[in-house]
Design a protein that fits this description.
932 residues; alpha+beta; Tetracycline Repressor, domain 2; Hypothetical protein af1432; 8-stranded antiparallel sheet; 56% helix; transferase; EC 2.7.7.59
């Protein structure tokens, strides 16, 4: 079960967070003194002094609540205390308002009021930054007395700096608006009496149940589930994103709230434990609900206390301190923060399981409609229930697979794999009852089941299904069957990767990778380029699916996960039924799964030595095809916008450049043919240009340009260059936004210059623009064409493009000597991100190129890093022949092909050491001033 780490717990009685009686006496004395002076504006002065004193008490209460939260660790209890604190504040303000400001000794029938907590506040649970939602409930229309009291309370709360949502309504208005508005209906569902006329509140609740709730369960459920879907579209459909939204994300508190709203509405319960008696949850599942709720409230309360505001996103820079506060410690291979986040994702999974259980119970009650297609299919059959012909242990119930009886798994534990195989084969959804039973039966998956040939055959067919293996694998994972059947996979379930590169947990990334591979095989995504073609040529598709499924399975171990993963594959593949040669291939693919991506993005693909070195790794064409497809699936499954046309083009180029080397000179598409084809496609895309102009322009680019740049970009750049030269500009820039990648691309066309890259990087740093990618190329007539990808700083494209214009102006001024970049950059002080530490590395290698020394620099990315590196190389009298700039989340990997001023490689250990020390100093610098 998921529990917070064990820690010293100090149980505090549930008492007030400050001395309520003493404060009441103090405020009463204050009111008598201020009002007794009979000055003009005394009421306003009293409200102000009350607000200041109550704000002190409120802050004191928060400080005590935080101390108790740190000591005992209960998030729910903290949320209850903060709600109680708010109750006491409102009670004090109300007492003073009706006693000293708007006293009514003989109130009329209309001068009655109930003050009601609604919404989240009505639940009696509040985070430190939660809004306070109040309903001033009246018997009839508003009166001058009621309006004055409500205003006095609200003004004091506002002056305290609290966020208060409020409404003033009669009982009739509440009922009328609740019928028409589902949001108001939901807030009233959690109404809680604070003070005032109890009879008014009781009337509201009785009429709400009778006139609004009764007979509208299906309508409410449909609205809440639709609302949830819309919310998840905004926050992300996966519960395994590495910076989750604790409140609104999938598997977060709002999902639990939605469950309980539905339960209260349909089953008319007030507490979670009552759902056990209704048959919705078992006693254990009700405990899981409370445990999830307590954990999520702990995280949310700490999150608000840490950030000092109503922050709901558990961002990287808060996760480490959160882990420390909650008592997590590091284990071999896993940081404390990674253990904390693994726990978080396991809780999110439990919340998803509870959602499925409530949905199933609602369908049984017919409160949640079965999808229309299912109803149509059911009518076409004599009975919506039928037995599957492959096994009498399973039935189909309204297009969902279910067990024939509760002993199905006990009779034959292989059925725990077979149920998923049959669901995938027949395209069936899963009945929640079957998934619940599968989760309870996990202990049946023992070594005998894992070694069972039939179980492994079924699993391989699930993994390599030509339909949608991702869906089935995810359900296997959510029930725990996948991790139990493949324990090595079980070790990475809910494991987060504490970096900004991966958007998902390790298990989710692996399952998504299989999903991407399936899409590649079906040809559904043209943007996957060459992989779509190669997948039709490979001989052994099954081993490719196994390699993709296992490529990151050794994450979280102290050793290199690629090497450890290859060892895991050598153990698992024979069990899955793979031959010795296929096992060797899978192990090799896992060990090399980062190689092709690294070389494509950080090496000069026009350098013969790069291609020869890669060819010596892959050795044969079949392995290179498999590695290319795996690399594509891996990158595309990292997160939104990570895969792009540029990476696709680089991988394609590396593949085709290497192909003739490993085939002994024969190539399915040799270099000259590919260059000619790329040029022909370019010509066809510019029909408005005459032949002479096209010939001249094509001749200005080296062959590598045509191979490493995709056609759309070639066309865009050609039009840009033509316009610049027509206007007589020696230096020209253009910018465009790329919504898919979340970047702005700045392209610079200028006379080539040894310090041009440093100038561009410095201009970006001076504008606090962060470089994440760069494509550097030169033309045969001595011009440079550089495209820099910058992280967005503004939401609106217009603002982004104006920023790009400022950067372009700085580049021109710097090249003309109008500004001195080192001085400008030195004033832009930017500290490195506190959330991450990356060990800096500088490698110099003369064997990676025949003509150049290759300098690879890796370290924590920050603003101005590229500028600092290029400036340093220039000061060291090194000529940069080509540069390859890439970022992988928080890690920058910049590779420079350099020579000395005479065009020779850099030789000598002392010279290498000096270069290494200078570049390490840049990586270790705290700001761009030091880097410059």
């Amino acid at each position: 079960m998921n529990e917070l780490p064990r820690r010293r717990r100090t149980e505090h009685p549930f008492k007030e967070l400050f001395d309520l009686d003493a404060l009441r006496v103090e405020l009463s004395a204050l009111a008598e003194r201020v009002l007794g002076e009979s000055r003009s504006g005394a009421e306003i002065e009293l409200r102000g002094q009350m607000a200041r004193r109550l704000k002190q008490a409120y802050q004191q209460g928060h400080a005590v609540a935080l101390r108790w939260l740190m000591e005992e660790g209960s998030g729910r209890r903290c949320a209850e205390r903060l709600s109680r604190l708010q109750d006491e504040i409102i009670q004090l303000v109300h007492e003073l308002a009706v006693q000293y400001l708007y006293r009514s000794d003989n109130p009329s029938t209309a001068e009655r009021m109930a003050i009601v907590a609604v919404g989240g506040y009505g639940r009696g649970l509040m985070a430190p930054g939660s809004d306070t939602d109040i309903l001033f409930l009246l018997p009839y229309k508003q009166t001058a007395w009621g309006e004055s009291v409500a205003e006095a309370i609200l003004y004091v709360l506002w002056d305290m700096g609290l966020k208060v949502g409020h409404a003033t309504r009669s009982v009739d208005e509440c009922i009328r608006q609740a019928r028409a508005d589902m949001t108001i209906r939901t807030t009233l569902l959690e109404a809680r009496m604070l003070l005032g006329e109890r009879a008014l509140f009781d009337e509201l609740i009785e009429r709400f149940d009778r006139e609004v709730v009764q007979g509208t369960g299906a309508e409410f459920v449909a609205a809440k589930l639709a609302e949830r879907e819309e919310r998840l579209k905004r926050t992300g459909q996966s519960r395994y994103v590495v910076e989750p939204n604790v409140k609104d994300g999938k598997g977060g508190l709002r999902d639990l709230h939605t469950l309980f709203w539905i339960a209260k509405y349909v089953y008319r319960v007030r507490e979670t434990r009552e759902l056990v008696a209704k048959g919705v949850f078992t006693a254990d599942e009700a405990k899981i609900f409370r445990r999830c709720e307590d954990f999520l409230w702990s995280v949310r309360c700490h999150l608000h206390f840490l950030s000092g505001k109503a922050e709901e996103r558990l961002s990287f820079d808060l996760q480490r301190e959160m882990a420390e506060r909650l008592g997590y410690v590091a284990h071999p291979g896993l940081k404390d923060v990674e253990r904390f986040m693994k726990h978080y994702f396991l809780v999110a999974k439990d919340v998803g399981d509870l959602t499925a259980l409530v949905s199933a119970a609602l369908e049984e009650r017919h409160e949640k409609p079965v999808p229309r297609l299912n109803r149509m299919i059911a009518r076409l059959r004599r009975s919506p229930r039928r037995t599957l012909k492959e096994s009498a242990d399973f039935i189909v119930d309204n297009d969902r697979i279910n067990v024939a009886d509760s002993s199905a798994f006990g009779r034959d534990p292989v059925n725990l794999i077979r149920i998923f195989h049959l669901a995938g084969k027949h395209g069936l959804a899963f009945h929640p009852d079957a998934m619940r039973l599968a989760t309870r039966s996990l202990k049946l998956i023992d070594p005998r089941v894992r070694e069972n040939p039939e179980a492994n055959r079924l699993f391989l067919e699930i993994l390599g299904s030509r339909a949608s293996p991702e869906i089935v694998l995810r359900r296997m994972n959510e029930t725990g069957v996948l991790g139990r059947f493949v324990p090595e996979f079980g070790r990475v379930v809910a494991m987060m990767q504490f970096n900004m590169y991966h958007s998902y947990t390790v298990d989710e990334h692996l399952i998504r990778s299989v999903g991407v591979l399936s899409k590649i095989e079906r040809g559904e995504r043209p943007e996957f380029g060459l992989a779509n073609e190669l997948v039709q040529q490979i001989k052994h598709r099954t081993l490719l699916y196994v390699a993709v499924f296992l490529h990151d399975v050794a994450k979280g171990r102290p050793e290199d996960h690629s090497i450890a993963g290859a060892r895991v594959a050598r153990k698992l593949c024979p069990r899955f039924g793979l031959s010795a040669s296929d096992t060797d291939t899978v192990a090799w693919l896992i060990e090399q799964h980062l190689t092709m991506s690294t070389i494509a993005q950080s090496r000069d693909l026009s350098d013969r030595k790069t291609i020869e070195n890669f060819a010596s790794v892959v050795q044969n064409l079949e392995r290179m095809k498999l590695l290319h497809i795996l690399t594509t699936a891996d990158i595309a499954a990292v997160g939104p916008g990570v895969w792009n046309n540029w990476k696709s083009q680089l991988l394609r180029t590396l593949y085709y450049e290497t192909e003739p080397v490993i085939t002994g000179g024969f190539s399915e598409s040799n270099r000259s043919q590919r260059v000619a084809r790329a040029q022909a496609e370019f010509r066809a895309a510019l029909p408005e240009w005459d032949g002479v102009a096209l010939d001249a322009y094509v001749g200005r680019h080296y062959p590598s340009y045509w191979l490493q740049t995709d056609r759309d970009q070639q066309v865009t750049q050609a039009r840009f260059i033509l316009a610049a030269e027509a206007d007589g500009h020696a230096l020209a820039t253009t910018a465009q936004t790329d919504p898919q990648r979340g970047v702005t691309e700045l392209t610079v066309f200028a006379p080539d210059h040894p310090k041009l890259l440093a100038v561009i990087a410095g201009a970006c740093a001076s504008a606090n623009a962060h470089i994440v990618d760069a494509q550097i190329s030169t033309t045969t007539d001595g011009r440079a064409l550089d495209t820099i990808a910058l992280t967005r700083a503004f939401e609106r494209d217009e603002d982004e493009l104006r920023r790009a214009e400022r950067i372009a102006a700085n580049i021109e001024k710097s090249l003309s000597g109008e500004i001195r970049l080192p001085e400008v950059v030195a004033r832009k002080f930017t500290k490195r991100p506190r959330a991450f530490t990356v060990e800096p590395e500088v490698t110099l290698n003369n064997s990676w190129s025949n003509k150049h020394t290759v300098v690879e620099v890796s370290g924590l990315d920050r603003h101005g890093l590229l500028y600092g590196l290029t400036q340093t190389l220039s000061r060291l009298n090194l000529n940069i022949a080509s540069a390859h700039v890439a970022t992988f989340g928080e890690r920058a990997v910049d590779v420079f092909y350099v020579t000395d001023l005479m065009g020779a490689k850099i030789m000598g250990a002392a010279r290498h050491s000096a270069i290494r020390r200078a570049l390490l100093a840049v990586l270790d610098a705290d700001d761009e001033a030091n880097a410059a």
